[in-house]
Target: Cytosine deaminase
Amino acid sequence: MHDLHLKNVRPLGEANCDILIKNGVIVEIGKVADQPGMPVEDGGNAIVWPGLIDAHTHLDKTTWGMGWHENNREAVLRSRIDFERENRIALGMDPHIQSMRHAIGLAANGASHIRSHVDIDTTHGLSLVEGVERTREALKGIIDIELVAFPQSGVMGRPGTVELLDAALANGCEVLGGIDPCGIDRDPKGQLGVLFDLALKHGVDVDIHLHEVGDLGAFTMELIFERVRANGMQGRFGISHAFALGMSDTVRAGKLIDEIAELDIAILTTGAPSATVPSVKRLREAGVRTGAGCDGIRDTWGPWGQPDMMDRARIIGMKTAVRSDIDLRHMLELVSQGGADVMRLENYGVKVGAKADFTLLVGETVAHSVVEIAPRPMVVKGGRVIARNGTCIVDMP
Amino acid sequence: MHDLHLKNVRPLGEANCDILIKNGVIVEIGKVADQPGMPVEDGGNAIVWPGLIDAHTHLDKTTWGMGWHENNREAVLRSRIDFERENRIALGMDPHIQSMRHAIGLAANGASHIRSHVDIDTTHGLSLVEGVERTREALKGIIDIELVAFPQSGVMGRPGTVELLDAALANGCEVLGGIDPCGIDRDPKGQLGVLFDLALKHGVDVDIHLHEVGDLGAFTMELIFERVRANGMQGRFGISHAFALGMSDTVRAGKLIDEIAELDIAILTTGAPSATVPSVKRLREAGVRTGAGCDGIRDTWGPWGQPDMMDRARIIGMKTAVRSDIDLRHMLELVSQGGADVMRLENYGVKVGAKADFTLLVGETVAHSVVEIAPRPMVVKGGRVIARNGTCIVDMP
Model:
């Protein structure tokens, strides 16, 4: 583990001081005396912010670093799923190489942790998970990666998928995923039954994709609430996207959010610009653990996205009508502490006793840094400088 | 006027060739023989695209280049208007200096034309217009600026405003603006009566801000349709924002769009991420002249925005669910030819006989350049290189 004397920085945007790191842990914040023999860095009066967290992405899907992927296909969820499953290998999307590119990009831009869904289906078995697991090993000490066993093509309609999810949870995936029990599987009772059985068997959390909108999504949420309560899964269930919470009936959405808070269900948002998305402000007020993620970036589904949680904070902020400085600060907390809350990270933050995982941000104030998609002159992981000015010490393959 | 032999470029993303410019006009596109004595530039195989057009912005409002403007005020339209009017001068927002910073930023990022609304109210009289007119003079040959006399604080509720609008149209403003005849003025018949009278008197086009949503905005549009028809103003009216066209009742929105097309009314969108916005695709299919703009950037209203129409193309593309390469190309056409259609520019485009106003874009394809917010190694205006790599030949004050 690493030692570092970081001078001339503004922790969390507060007054200029130093940070002292020993064995990868922050041991002092303030005016620090010179430390003979210890590595020293000058932070240039930048803001120090806890490591950014991409709490919802897909490391196995990106075409980042490949040639431009032309897309003139129809924009239908089911056909996007099928196209990707049938063509990803032929297109040259090696799950290890692509996940390396994606994860190194995130680290270079200040992220310290990733929760990545990885496709599991009867075409690929566990080969995509294995590719991303190689990346997780290769990037130890650079960025931490948590894996979600994700049945992208559905659970109930493709026999053999349940067994693959079971095997994935026994072989390195920490979280169980799911997807649109009504919209994709046409069998909410069936899929949710499988998810709760597997989660209880393996003692893992669940993080389900729920693109279902309006009344359909609310229906599925209510089925989830019943089962979280019946199985004692409070605090161990997450809903990604949760587009239904952006419904125009804000009274009904408010009641759903109240129940989400009561059951300590986590919400993961990507601030999808063209969809109805949850009000991050309303979730915060209700005390719901809420994280954010870039989702897929530049994949066969669509061209948008960057491996950059500051870019994502801007997208979510613009989408949810953030204007004030305090709300801008909350956007930055969403893409950092929010993800840590969802992933239940320990010793996270810029404080004495925490792991020295943080990024420097150039900006007059925290709000300014969010709007600017601030340059990141230095990223520190476990006390070690792992990136400078957007370039990681590990080369992209 | 300027001559230039530009080598090694891809006009509109097509095959690599040269462009020959004489007296500021494109005279040849293809394999061009060496021209003794003529300035030569190497385009590095970049795409050549017509000058970007910010067809809806507010040059007098930005805090760009000033210290960070902290904002912890309430987010209500009326109170934003009042705060800005009462504080802009005290905050140090000089209309000439700020509009210079904003317009130079746009030019540096590839824009050749701007349509800017400028506030006219009984507090400032015409002083803000005069400041922006100085900028227009100072930037002749760098970027073309069209001015809209804009009654930001309302027309009917503040006696004296009509006379100021009249004076502005007699003194350099080419277009007449308006704002929410119901929502701000509480008097749609009154404001629209004034606007049509002034437009007919001065022979100018109208471009009205219409933030009114849903049924209210549809009502105001119907009042506008009646008056465009009665006054023979077909082809000379524009509606900015037009949030009502993003209503969930797509059948009704479709009927409004059909009438907009029939009356040749122009639509200006900013793709406002947190609002309901018109479907650019539907407008295109209906043949509606549609331009786009950055709106205010980093002003007292809110922190977002860049003086960059490629950034805006990305925002509108994400907001309107663009995914395919052809739709990405349409986004780039929206922020270029679309604005030219609204402003009825002549001799615009990358073609023989057109004015040599264009930007270079780095990208494998046109779609790729939109997603990347492509670097712009060179911007040409009237055959003269006016910016390189994001820096204009005119310094920001």
Chain B has eleven helices and 16 strands. The interface with chain A takes residues 67-68, 70-73, 75, 248, 273-274, 298, 301-304, 314-315, 317-321, 323-326, 328, 364-365, 367-368, 371 of chain B (CB under 8 Å).
